[in-house]
Fold these 4 entries.
Entry 1:
Amino acid sequence: MKKSIYLAMAIAALLAGCARGGGIGLEALVADGQCEQQGFHLGTPKYSKCRAQMAYQRGMVNAEMQARLQRQQEQLQAQMNRQQTCSYGGTAIGGITSGTMTCQ
């Protein structure tokens, strides 16, 4: 009997999470909380608009992060492909070599 009650509670929580809009997860819970704090109620057009605006903003942030990562990868690739010219100037005295190496 206890297992049935726990199962029913879990299913109810799962369905309630889906009904709130945006699926289940931390992002959805945060978005729900923020829209509710602004005074919007679940099922109203203003609530839906609030959630849509939050999803749009999250998408913009994700797109910017992806673009930044792409730029970093391109810069790293350019550095790895860059050819260097190195020169060594040194002397050998009694079997011991010393000098300096310069790369550009």
Note: The longest helix spans residues 45-81.
Entry 2:
Amino acid sequence: MPRTKRERTLLLIAIIVVPIILIVNYLMPSGHAAAGARALLPLSQANFKRDIETRTMARWREEEQQMQPQIARMSYDLPADQVVPQMVGDLQRIATRAGVHLGEIKPVKPDLLPSGAGAQVPVSVRFRAPLQPNTIRFLYEIEDPGGKFVVEKMDITSGDARFQTVEASAQISVFTRSTVGVAGTKGEHQHESQTSQNKS
């Protein structure tokens, strides 16, 4: 299933923001290294280079500040294990409004985003309901641009022809800016290492 505009935006933001910060840090060396590097350039060239770096940093900072409200609106800032109960509650409320009974809501292992700036927190759901209007309304509300949910995978098969229902399963995700407890983060590896040492 193709990614939604909201998902592409979040992934793009997550992939870009941290590298930008790293580039900014690279462009602004400090201490003796900066003094030594600039001593090799004529004063006019050093000033020109500094002006470019200053303007570039200012532009990046402005763009990052402009993105922050969007990032905050479309993602959480909680550890994955705290996000899941909120997801379950929100999904159940949406399902109730749509006339869908969720037969299963199962948490899936969260994944660290490529940039390391956050995590994707998925759950899988299963249900049987009429395609129209119930299932369509449920999916429409899940994909509401004002919300945080993203439908990653969707599978709809014939259910009961007599009652005109379908069997549906989906993987639904949200994003969090927290990486606490997510495998692949530095802290998680340290925690696992300490746990292994304690067991031994």
Note: The helical segments are 5-27, 31-39, 43-74, 80-98, 131-142, 186-199.
Entry 3:
Amino acid sequence: MDDPERITEMLAALEDDHERLGELGGRILRAIGANDVTMAANALIELQRAQAAHFRFEEGLMEEAGFPGRGAHAESHDRLVAALDAINAALGLGRISSLSQDLGDFIEESLKHISELDECFRGFLNDLLG
């Protein structure tokens, strides 16, 4: 890939996605803090949809760019999806009080993913820019 404009667009789109995912995570935390199961469930569904779209987009970019770490990165995506599915299942059972730890673990894993794996991909894209 040797189109600097396309690479710059990729980087900006990834950053926008991460901000959106963070905002949705914050909404879930506020809903749990307010003990509002409906608000938490709605925000969680929105987060799951946004996360799935982001992961598809990001994995497509990795393939397009020829990123060699794509496999391990996609495996991390799968783990994050499974964790969010488990949180959604607990919420569906009305166990909102038990979600704080699970959600905290998910957020910690998400931040680790962003700081390590996404940063590696970002660096790869920046290296392509020269």
Note: The mean pLDDT is 87.
Entry 4:
Amino acid sequence: MKCPQCGFRNLPGTKFCGACGADLTVQSSTTLEPFYPPRAWGRRFRQPHPEAEQARYRWRRWLPFRRPDTNPTLTLQQISEQRRLRRLIWLTALRSLAGLIPGIGLLRERRTQEGWRLLFAFLICIAIAVLCWRNFLSNIALLTIAGLVVYSVGATFFAAWQRNNLPTLSPLQRAGIWLTVVSSFFWALTVAGVVLSIWFGTAFVPFGNTGDAVMENNNLLLYSRIGRHLTNLKPNDYVVVDGERARTITQLGFNYGDVVIQFGTPIIARIEAVRSNVNGVEVEIAVPMFLGSNIVWAKAVAPMEAIQGKVIAVLNPPSRRRWLP
């Protein structure tokens, strides 16, 4: 508010001039003048750090050209709708996990006819795998079960998607979802194999022993590292032994004089006896070895600490597939 006599600018609402004391009420009733506060001339504002400014320039240099956003701002209703769709998609993915048992997921999504067919095929494959465990048909049944699981999970996902009235998918999006389901299945197999290898281990028989009724060359073995298996060892059990800690005493079956046999690591052997002495518990093992064209059962002794696992199953080939007692 400017004083009409001296020109001094007073604050709005002032009745008397702060410089000359003139009455300002007459002017305020007739004319109103807006008040503009003085600017902070000469004030020094905070400057950015030079290194931060350089880093910002380098980052902006590599950014692509961004067009201004011409779309209108999303309303709260649109944001809530997007959140609802995201929740529905995650719930659909979780409900598709019921398809890990073929047919169950489709039955939950009220696809009864297709669900009962998948469940019946799954039970038939399990019966074939159990009855033909020592036959090549068991491998085909196991592969069929894997295919049924992948198809069941994918079909359950799309059935739940349709039931939740989610947006229609294009063929490219459907193909991407199928690829995701297949890759997730292989990732699950990999993780299961890693977890299984923590408790168990697999090894191939590195020798050919025609005189053994249980194992033969290139058999795939499953051995256990669980403590209760390693503490209940008895004769005729097959074990995986650290060959560097085993020492040869005699040879069984052939006499080649003073032949020194050096074992590799690890070796697969059959337990002959378990004995205790001043050095602790030792295990007498029979190891098949190649000497020329003949197979010699070399007798060796290994400490109990050298036993890495007990063979509990022969997985390959199917004709010899079995669980060992």
Note: The helical segments are 25-30, 50-62, 76-95, 104-108, 112-131, 137-163, 171-199, 227-230.
